[in-house]
């Protein structure tokens, strides 16, 4: 129940920080399920499992739908969503026989599908085949999962009201009118949302502009009916007129045969406050670029003490950081192609020092197929280059910024860029790097810097604006805090997922801040596209 006292309204906070946690609703349906029953069709039920510490744990289950091979389940699964985690889900469909619990040996397994929460929200609607054990197709069976964010705040409305030629209710003076706005709920009950101030002794009043959250005013539904009533202390108040945000011009009915009044001067301005998932579900892609430090301070890659040493049994810190962050970002890039760059090395054929070369040595296309493609390009390039120096990262930041600037000119929330820089020491070109970061803060990009090895990274903290505002050498501040720096050694004894959670936790807020600053709304959701990277359950 939303209420407001006279002259008051819930104060919106469009600049409030994005909550770390979002909740997502998942709706499930199936088609062409296998028919396991002899006398009638299967009675399907869906179990939702989530992986926790390597174990599959049941989260919830749907109702059983009798004798149906194409069920649409009424059960809505609710899951917590974290951008910075790989949240693995498994949907299992069973033919329930009713006399035992679903999932026991008495039930027939009709198929399963594995994916991540990130994959579902990035595509919004996912349709995939069901698999039996050992990766065998369950005939032509498919499962469809549709996602929707549970949003508690989608913006606010700024309203201005004026009236003309009100009926005069007072005997010795003119009326003292005020307005009340009610939300009409689904059960037709009316909830008071806002009451204006009283305008004394005036038959053509103009009330002060005010703000009301969309959630309070209309449950974020612009077509929900509202009732606007005029009051002036009369024991027989005006019944009021109805309107919606789509047609905001109610006419007040008069009482006792009066002429009534028109709110002809009413103005409504909707201010949307979008969430990270609004942009992702609207089709915004996240393009991931990794930049790797190949300076001589890393040590000879052929030596087991080198930070670039390739141990067949244990990935080095560069690979651990690359895979941990890349595995998160890949769910939000439909083509699964990632730019992989190197800096600080002498490269063939002339062995001149380069600070922004493609590690696949293709100057026309620096993208690799999937995270595994980046790993393979990294491993294959090491024997071909000479580690050198210095540690200059400004060229790569500027290179990604140029691509982001091209994207900005589309004036759409279609692509956001994340640059992961892996380095073993403090950057040499600190002034140029600060300048490049300030320029990049105006573009759709974020920068993550992971310090590899045991160097003293104290001077790198200046790039991370957590302790103060980063400024260019000329004193210009960043528009947004877009840099996150962490030393890898702080996570050496933790799982790689802990590193990813730390460095990616701020990205959703940075995405929202940028598009809010540019006033770019989410795009319309894109049509579903097949994704062969969704794995079959084993």
UniProtKB/TrEMBL annotation:
UniProt-listed InterPro entries: C2_dom (IPR000008), C2_domain_sf (IPR035892), C2B_Copine (IPR037768), Copine (IPR045052), Copine_C (IPR010734), VWF_A (IPR002035), vWFA_dom_sf (IPR036465)
Domain C2 as annotated: residue spans: 2-130, 137-262
GO terms for biological process, alphabetical: cellular response to calcium ion
Keyword set includes Repeat: yes
UniProt domain VWFA: residue ranges: 287-486
Record bears the keyword Flavoprotein: no
PROSITE patterns on file: C2, VWFA
GO cellular component terms, semicolon-separated: plasma membrane
Annotated GO MF terms: calcium-dependent phospholipid binding
Keywords: Repeat
Annotated family: Belongs to the copine family.
Name of the protein in its database record: Copine-7
Species: Eudyptes filholi (Southern rockhopper penguin)
